[in-house]
Amino acid sequence: MFCLIVIEYPDSDGSAPHIRQVNAEAAGWLGYQADDLLAKPVAMICAAGNAAPLWQAAAAAAACSQPFPYELLNQRQQPLQVVISASLLFAQAGAVGGLALHIALPDSDSQAQCHAVESALTESEARFRQMAEMTGEWLWEQNPEGVYIYSSAAVQQILGYKPEEVLGKHYTRFLSQEGEVALDHNAGSQQPFYNLLNDHRHKDGHHVVTESTGLPLFGAAGKLLKWRGVDRDITAQKYYHDALIASERRTRLIIESSTNAIVIMDADGLITDWNLQAEKIFGWASEEAIGQALVALIVPPRLRPAFLQGLKLFLHTGISPWLNTLAEQTALRRDGGEFPIELSVAPLLIGDSYSFSGFIRDISQRKIAEQQIREAQITLAIAQSEIKIAQQIQTSLLPSGPIRTAAFEVTGLCLPADKVGGDYFDYFYHNDTCLDMVIADVSGHSIGPALFMVEARSVIRAQAKHSGRPAAILGLLNQFLFDDLNQADYFITAFYLRYDIATQQLSYANAGHSPPLLLRAGAKECERLDADGMILGVRKAITFAEKSCKLGKDDVLLLYTDGLTEADNAHGEFFGLERAGEVLLQHAGQSPQAILTALLEALKAFCHRDCFSDDITLLLFKRS
Which of 9-13, 204-208, 217-221 has the lowest mean pLDDT? Predict the structure, then answer.
C-alpha cells in the first residue's frame, strides 16, 4: 500500500511547511478526511513534534533518490512506522515549490507500485523541467561550494554559454564585478533565497540581469547536499524599470526646483501632489496638504462656489473657461491672508478619470510694483503739469523780443537743460536815457531754481526804479534773497549792467558771475569785463564793486552762463571762452540774432549734440 502527500517549502518569511495536497489513501490511513489536512502544518502528522527532521530527510532523499524510514502520527496520536521516498517539485517563474512524499507501509507488498509512482513523479519532474526550459528559465544545481553540477539548456539563451561550459565552474565566474559585490552578504548562507537580482556577464561581455530563486537541499543529518534553483532574464524589464525610475526622479527634480507652485488635484478635488514652492507660497507642508480638498485649503470662501461649479461643469461637459489659460486669481494662505496669484490649470485624462495640474505664481510683489508704477505715473503727470506751468511762467518773464533802436540792438535766448532751468536774463529801460541788462544763474535745475529766478526778477524790476546803480541793486537783491537761498541750499551768480544811451557809458557790477566778453570794433581779440563781488546767498552783507567803460560804434558785448563755456565733447574737452571769442570775431559784422545763431551752431558742432547737461543762456548787445 502506498499514499502521497505534497508539502510546500517555507515561504520567504520563514513560516513552517504545510500540507499542499494529499490523496484519499494517505488521509484515510492517517484517520482524516483529505480536506482536514489541506493547508495544515506538516508538524501535526510528525511524531517528532515538528517538521524539521522530516523536512531535512525528505530533501536529502529527493537529492539522492534514496527512501528513508520515518515515524508519522495519526489522528489518534498513535505513531506509525513508514518508508518515505521524496521528489522535489518546482513551480514556474521562481515561485515556491514543494516536496512530494511517497509513503509505503513496511508490511506492504506493493514495492512495484511504489516504484511506479516514483517513476511517474520523475517523469512529471522531467516534463516540468522541459516546460521551464521552453519558457526560457535557467534551471541549475550547485554543490555546497557553489560549483555548477547541473545546468539546463536555457543558460545559452540567457548567458550565451552551453550547459557543458557552465558545469564544473563556480557561479561567481559568470557574475560581473558589481554582481560579486552584491552577493558578498550571502556568502556562507544556507537559507533559501527568492527573487534575488544577480548581475551576470554574458559570454560576449554585456551585462545580463537575472532574478534568481534558490533552495538548499539537506541530508538526514542536516548536512547541506546541494543547491537547486532557477534564474530568469529580466534585463529588459530592469532597463525599463530603471529608466522609469530615472524619469520619475527627473520629473520630481523639475517639479521641486520649479519657481512656480505645482499643485495636482484629482477629479474629486483632492490634492495628490504639492511641491516645495507650494509649501513656501501657501504655508502648508506637503504631508499636510496631500489628501485635503484643494478648495478648502487655498480658495477664499467667497470664491469656492464658483470654483466647484466650474469643476462640475468641466467633468460633465468637458468645457471650462479657466482651463489651459493664464489668469490672475486670488488665493488663500495658511494664516488666512489673501494674495494675488497667476494661475494656469491643465487637465489630464488618465483612464476614465481626470487629473488637474495647477501652475501657480505668487504675484504679490508684481502687484505692488504695478501699483507703485501707477502712483509714479500719476506723480509724474502732476509734476509734468507743474513743470509745464512753471515753464510757461518762466518763459513769460523773459523779454518778449529784442530791443532795436538806431543807436543799439539787444537780444537774448535761454536753453534750459531740463523743462525748467535756473538761468535768467532780462533787459529793460531804466528811464528814457538808460538801458538795464542782467544775466543770472541759480545753482541746480528744475522748479526750485526757476522759482528763485521769478523772485529775483521781481526784486530786480522793483529795485531798479529806485536805487539807480548796478552795485546797489545786487546788494539789495542779496539781502532780500539771503534767508531763502540759505535755507534751500541754493546760490545765485549775477552780472548787472546799465547803459547810458546819451553818453554811451556802460556801468556794471558782478556777483560771482562769468565775466562778459567785449569785442571792440576792429579789434583782434575780446576783452573781459569784471568787477569784484561775491555770489548771492553766501553772506548777508556784501559790498559790490562797480566799474564803467564807454562803448564805441559797432562794439559787441556778449553775456553768458557757464553752460556755454563748460559744454564738453566726447573727449571731455570744454567749448571754452576762446572758441566763443573766435565766433564773435568771425561774425561781429552781423546782427545780434545772427551772431547768437552762429554761436549755437558752433557749440552743437563741437559737442556733436543738440541737447546739453546744463542751462545755456546768452545775451548780446551791439552798438550801432
Answer: 9-13
Written as one letter, the residue type at 394 is Q
List the Cα angle 43/48/53 in 5-degree steps: 80
Q: How far apart are CA 608 and CA 616, in angstroms?
A: 16
3-state SS, one letter per residue, for 582-610: HHHHHHCCCCHHHHHHHHHHHHHHHHCCC
Question: Band of the pLDDT at 421, cuts 50, 70, 90?
Answer: low
Strands 68-73 and 79-89: antiparallel
- Written as one letter, the residue type at 176 is S
Beta strands 98-104 and 2-8 are antiparallel
d(CA 450, CA 553): 36
Whose CA is closest to 275, among 293, 295, 251? 251
Q: How far apart are CA 468 and CA 465, in angstroms?
A: 6
Region 297-304: what's the mean pLDDT?
A: 95
Which of 89, 131, 81, 90 has the alpha carbon at shortest distance from 108?
A: 81
Cα separation of 26 and 43, whole Å? 16
**Residue 37 burial by CB count (10 A; 0-12/13-18/19+): exposed, middle or buried?**
buried
The percentage of the chain sitting over the pLDDT mark of 70, rounded to a whole number, equals 88
Of 476 and 385, the structure prediction assigns the larger pLDDT to: 476
Is-contact 529 516, C-beta < 8 A? yes
Q: Is the pLDDT of residue 170 over 70?
A: yes
**Cell numbers standing for residue 62:** 529527493
What are the strands of the beta sheet with 207-218, ordered from one edge?
148-151, 138-142, 224-233, 207-218, 193-201
Rounded-to-integer distance, Cα 620 and Cα 624, Å: 13
Decide: 183 and 172 in contact? Cβ < 8 Å. Answer: yes
Closest by Cα among 238, 198, 231, 234 to 214: 231
